[in-house]
Design goal:
mainly alpha, 107 residues, single chain
Length: 107
């Protein structure tokens, strides 16, 4: 956990450094998004793996796992949309399709 905090602090420091050296806003946003992605995905995958390891209430945990995948999909889609602007609509469509699937599973 302490390594995540150190990485986050270092990343924020570098993002501030980029902003101070008059980098383009898009570059700073892409960098901060990548940093968020690097922190979010491992933590969410850990949470998913713990739910799968201790799968004692399948009727509830299946929904939890589906919702946790939304976190990863949103993070990856947002970062890719910042990086590759021309194909952002395709990433958003895939994200919306999975979100619709998650909502459908509740009914």
């Amino acid at each position: 956990m302490s390594s995540v905090i150190v990485a986050l602090a270092a990343g924020i420091g570098m993002a501030v450094g980029l902003a101070l050296y008059h980098s383009e806003r898009h570059t700073v946003a892409w960098y901060v998004g990548g940093l968020s992605l690097v922190v979010t995905v491992p933590l969410t995958l850990y949470d998913i793996s713990m739910h799968m390891l201790y799968y004692v209430r399948p009727e509830l945990q299946a929904y939890y796992i589906r919702i946790l995948w939304l976190v990863i999909i949103y993070a990856v889609e947002s970062w890719l949309a910042l990086r590759i602007k021309t194909t952002a609509i395709y990433f958003e469509t895939l994200r919306e399709a999975y979100e619709s699937y998650c909502l459908y599973c509740f009914f």
